[in-house]
Amino acid sequence: MNEEVELILEDTEEKMERTIKHLDNELSKIRAGRANIHMLDGIMVNYYGNPTPLTQIANVNSPDARTLAIQPWEKNMIDPIEKSILVANLGMTPMNNGEIIRINIPMLTEDRRRELVKKVKIEGESARVGIRNNRRDGNEQLKKLIKEGLSEDDEKDAEKVVQEMTDKYIRVVDDRLVAKEKDIMTI
User: Fold this and answer.
1) CA-CA distance, 85 to 92, in Å (whole number)?
2) Domain assignments of the chain as residue spans, ordered by start
3) Do 3-29+109-185 and 37-104 fold alike per CATH?
4) Contacts 24+ apart (CB under 8 A), 14-18
């Protein structure tokens, strides 16, 4: 195959990989009833006037399946961390003992589990749309190469490869969604 075609195929696959990584990141933020330190990803704390990620000013761990423990590196950061968690509206209430902030993860109700499954499905559909958009972009780039002298047969072969990639990554999305749904619905 043509070098330009290879570059387009590599670029398309790379974009699809990034879509899967984004999906994994989003799914890790959806809690399944167990404590997960990634639940606090994205929480920004006012650190001396600068918004700073929580993980850069404190140690976050999960001592058991229902508890998150946050130990700030500076004791005076306990109150700003607590406020940031409350403002993030995660549905969890932080408690501090002056040194460590603990968050007890409540059991999920059946209704809340269903809501989370809907959220997972929305994230999955968003990932599928992203993969299809990557396919479309790759195919458009291939069509432009026809004007530059690429044969139609080579273009059709490359489009078939793009479609195979699309099918493969859609299956990956579906597998991740099934696993996450099972994780959420398991009590």
Assistant:
1) 8
2) 3-29+109-185, 37-104
3) no
4) 15/134, 15/137, 16/131, 16/134, 16/165, 16/166, 16/169, 17/169
Cα 89 to chain centroid, rounded: 18
Q: What CATH number has the domain spanning 37-104?
A: 3.30.1360.40
User: In sequence order, what DSSP letters do the residues of 120-186 get, joined into one string?
Assistant: HHHHHHHHHHHHHHHHHHHHHHHHHHHHTT--HHHHHHHHHHHHHHHHHHHHHHHHHHHHHHHHHH-
pLDDT tens for 80-116 read 888 888 888 777 788 888 889 898 887 778 888 888 8
> By the 8 A CB rule, do 28 and 36 touch?
yes
- What pLDDT score does 1 carry? 56
Phi, psi (5° rounding) for residue 154? -65, -40
Give the architecture-level CATH label for domain 3-29+109-185. Orthogonal Bundle (1.10)
Which residues of the chain are under the pLDDT cut of 50?
none
